Amino acid sequence: MTTRYWFARNIRAGHKGYDRYGKGVMPIAWQGRAVIAGFVLAMLCGGLLMALVGFYANHLALGIALYVILAIAGAGTFIWAVATRSDPDKSIADYRAEKQRAQSSAKLK
């Protein structure tokens, strides 16, 4: 049974070995996009809660704590997903080439 990956690494052209990996990953499945959306949503909700609780209810320490908790949860989920669901062998360029080949062969049929 093969593992379906959610992310693929960026590979920089002209670099060799481990140095060729870029600093980021790109989503290749809907699950990867959902993880990114969840991270952004956690940050936005944390900021909104911090503003409401901290400034409206005058409990700034509680607002900051809520923001930090949501930020850590969102970032932790994102880091876990990237660490466990990234393809170590193929880059985003390889996935795009496969997708283009599949689309062009489908047009020929």
Quick overview of this protein structure:
The chain is an alpha+beta fold and 109 residues long.
From the N-terminal CA to the C-terminal CA, the straight-line distance is 29 Å
Indicate the proportion of strand residues: 15-25%
- What is the topology, as strand order, of the major beta sheet? 2-1-3
Summed up, the helix count is 3
- Overall mean pLDDT: 83
Stretches with pLDDT under 50, minimum 5 residues: none
**Estimated structural class:** alpha+beta
Sheet bearing the most strands, described? 3 strands, mixed
SS elements, strand count:
3
Computed Rg: 19 Å
Outline: elongated
Please provide a written account of the structure.
64% of the residues lie in helices and 17% in strands. By secondary structure, the chain is of the alpha+beta class. Strands 2-1-3 form a 3-stranded mixed β-sheet. Helix 1 runs antiparallel to helix 2. The radius of gyration is 19 Å and the shape is elongated. The model has no long low-confidence stretch (mean pLDDT 83).
Defining traits:
64% helix, alpha+beta, 109 residues, 17% strand
